[in-house]
Amino acid sequence: MKSVAIIGTGLIGASFGLGLRKAGFEGPIWGVSSAGAVKEALAVKAIDRAAPLAEAAAECDLLFLAQPIGRILDTIRHLNPLVRPEALVTDAGSTKCEIADLALREITRCRFLGGHPMAGKEKRGAAAAEAGLFRGATWVLTPEEPGDLASTQAKDFVHWLHKLGAKPVRMDPEEHDRVVSLTSHLAQLASTALAAAVAENLQPAERLAVAGPGLMDMTRLALSSYDLWRDILATNSEPIDRALGAYIQKLEYVRENLRTRQLQREFQRGAELAARLREAVAGDARVPNDKLG
Length: 293
Fold this sequence. Notes:
This protein is α/β, with parallel strands linked by helices and 293 residues long. It has helices at 11-23, 35-43, 53-59, 69-79, 97-106, 152-163, 173-201, 213-218, 226-235, 237-256, 263-282; strands at 4-7, 29-32, 49-50, 62-65, 88-91, 111-117, 138-142, 167-170. It is built from eleven helices and eight strands. Residues 285-289 have low confidence and may be disordered.
């Protein structure tokens, strides 16, 4: 991997560029995005130069699609005639099935390896980027073909992911989308719904001064932008619908048992999961038998 093109120089793309530099990558890093986004990425030194997609694709070994999902899909539709045969195209999309299916049909001239770094912030843009954003974070890779991870390009990419401090994990696109509907998308919607419910029912608004730290913790994700989440919800609607159904059923059970001791079991089950989650984040969160290198 001697040169990199980051398509979409926002938080994730710019953090990838900064992380590569900090990890010792010495090759050129190109940026493809809007004029304002590449200007910001140049200012924080996440990229070396800005270029149109066709020029960057013709020159670079790795093309990292770090756009919103709808834009990733659009880029994939136009990419095949532009890329070098020895290049690797990967992405950072938060859902994988639609991206993987489209790439399998459209990208035939070089290899494609789907990806999803499980990292981010509520803030957007290169100004919020961090070289260490992916350190300790799971980076899911979703190969569609048996040879996708065996290629020299993929092995080199995985090598750099390790140097970024990320934890690469292999999953099928379908399994990825099912899992993140529970571990990521449900959390976002629960936080958004909680904040909206409090906003509608707590009057006057000055009563928020009575809120404890729990409400602050639980509504952190509610700061996220709908513009970012619109494509995620649209491309993973069926798994998210099932996750919401399970959550709503659990909330109904909680409501029905407010005056019984049945909730003791739910508190225990919830506390066990919360403890395991914190242990996983603090330790090695890689999935057994699917970890890479």
